[in-house]
Backbone:
């Protein structure tokens, strides 16, 4: 099976001379849930933005679906740390924004938008404005927006880091449930070790700037994942390995 | 404002009017110096047709000047947002030019544009223009980077980012500017009418002043204030209609004539 995303020797040096990423090399297979884990400021968001085509790498190349990334693509969905919902649009209209931007017919996607909202449990709020929603609900809407145009690849940049711990666990479960139905390739950026282990098939640990990939580990916990698994030995073994790698800061 | 909130200011206004009436009556102040409210009210009634006749040209020039400053102000703000030359070269000039008291150039405008409507319209435009420009420019440029990045990720064009994100985001601030501008447009037109006009409320005030007809002067001022208040109320009502979503209160800027 051909890879969904190929990151081929990517490096990024900012115009200021700061080297954010020295070298990253990995690939993601279709349908895989991959997490990029690392401390704040390690360039993992920068890497995600380059996959999204929003930033240009200084070295190397990125291929999505066998085509080199030259800019944003119509088959990619993205979720940011904050929900970035437009306050003057209703929840439904926010979800349909990518459809409008991509100049597709709104009518073709309205049913799908409503289905996604129902799946995320916020269909009762379709006609409401964002300020009437809680933080967790807003982020659910943002996830629906990222999926409305049925992208093959979903990019998530610390989507739950602004939420409280309990909402965060709940959102992780719901994301897995949606992912299970929608079958997307997911690249998920986080600085939470437990979140990375709980959600992913595979976790890549990034070192501090200038970053490289220090460790790659496969999480073989069965799916569907449940909250109980967080107590299991297997889960905590992964957490231990990843923590050691992060504390070592990339040194072997 | 809720009706209950209006109760206190209305009661105080009424009390002040009664006090004014009684003090002037008791002290026998000459009408030419300070007419009683009841006298002003009766003049307002008896001279109603005359006042209305002069209100019309003032009214349409205020509205025209305001609309002109709205269109021009938004246009210049768009240029400030998208053109580096305008932003770096002209914007500071526009800001610094606000130090010139615009009412002081009214006589100059009469020299340049004559005694007709044009010089009054242009003065109203000049005064009302600035708050629209800086508020709109602030609104268009203060969009959070995340919104633009999100729109770009979904392949939004510059035009789509403008119409679907920047412009709606700027609307609350544009309305803030409009509310200042409409009151400034009133000042602009009336000052221009003071300088040179054969009609209009400003002209009526100057004429009544020349005749030492203080009651007529004050009746004209009352009518003018009522018109200004109504126009402001119209803009505020439109704002509530257009900016229906919840926005944190931002203080509009640029409110000096």
Residues:
């Amino acid at each position: 099976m051909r890879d969904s995303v190929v990151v081929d020797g990517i490096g990024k040096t900012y115009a200021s001379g700061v080297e954010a990423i020295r070298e990253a090399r990995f690939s993601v297979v279709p349908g895989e849930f991959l997490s990029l884990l690392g401390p704040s400021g390690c360039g993992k968001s920068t890497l995600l933005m380059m996959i999204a085509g929003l930033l240009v790498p200084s070295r190397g190349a990125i291929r999505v679906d066998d085509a080199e990334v030259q800019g944003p693509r119509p088959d990619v969905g993205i979720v940011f740390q904050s929900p970035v919902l437009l306050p003057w649009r209703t929840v439904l209209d926010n979800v349909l924004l990518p459809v409008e931007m991509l100049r597709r017919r709104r009518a073709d996607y309205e049913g799908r938008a409503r289905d996604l909202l129902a799946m995320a449990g916020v269909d009762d709020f379709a006609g409401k404005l964002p300020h009437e929603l809680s933080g967790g609900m807003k982020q659910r809407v943002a996830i629906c927006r990222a999926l409305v145009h049925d992208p093959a690849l979903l990019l998530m940049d610390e989507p739950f880091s602004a939420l409280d711990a309990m909402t965060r666990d709940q959102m992780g479960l719901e994301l897995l449930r949606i992912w299970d139905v929608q079958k997307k390739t997911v690249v998920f950026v986080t600085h939470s070790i437990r979140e990375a282990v709980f959600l992913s098939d595979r976790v890549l640990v990034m070192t501090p700037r200038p970053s490289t990939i220090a460790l790659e580990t496969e999480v073989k916990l069965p799916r569907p994942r449940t909250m109980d698994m967080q107590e299991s030995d297997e889960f905590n073994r992964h957490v231990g390995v990843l923590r050691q790698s992060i504390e070592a800061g990339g040194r072997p | 404002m809720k009706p209950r909130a209006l109760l206190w200011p209305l009661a105080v206004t009424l009390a002040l009017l009664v006090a004014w009436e009684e003090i002037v009556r008791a002290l026998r102040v000459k009408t030419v110096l300070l007419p009683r409210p009841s006298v002003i009210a009766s003049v307002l009634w008896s001279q109603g047709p005359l006042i209305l006749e002069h209100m019309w040209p003032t009214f349409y020039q205020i509205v025209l000047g305001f609309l002109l400053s709205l269109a021009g102000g938004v246009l210049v703000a768009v240029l400030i947002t998208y053109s580096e030359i305008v932003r770096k070269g002209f914007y500071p000039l526009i800001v610094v030019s606000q130090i010139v008291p615009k009412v002081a150039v009214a006589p100059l405008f009469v020299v340049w544009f004559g005694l007709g409507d044009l010089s009054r319209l242009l003065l109203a435009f000049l005064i009302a223009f600035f708050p629209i420009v800086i508020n709109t420019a602030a609104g268009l440029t203060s969009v959070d980077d995340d919104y633009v990045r999100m729109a770009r990720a979904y392949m939004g064009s510059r035009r789509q980012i403008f119409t679907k994100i920047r412009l709606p985001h700027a609307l609350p601030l544009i309305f803030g500017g409009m509310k200042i501008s409409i009151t400034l447009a009133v000042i602009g037109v009336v000052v221009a009418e003071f300088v040179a006009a054969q009609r209009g409320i400003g002209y009526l005030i100057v004429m009544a002043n020349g005749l030492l007809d203080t009651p007529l002067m004050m009746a004209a001022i009352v009518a003018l204030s009522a018109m200004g208040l109504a126009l402001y109320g119209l803009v505020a009502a439109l704002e509530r209609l257009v900016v229906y979503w919840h926005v944190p209160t931002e203080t509009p800027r640029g409110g000096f004539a």
Residues 38-242 of chain B form a domain with the MetI-like fold fold (CATH 1.10.3720.10). The radius of gyration of chain B is 22 Å. Chain B touches chain A at residues 144, 146-147, 149-156, 160, 164-165, 168, 171, 244-247 (CB under 8 Å). Chain B has a mean pLDDT of 90.
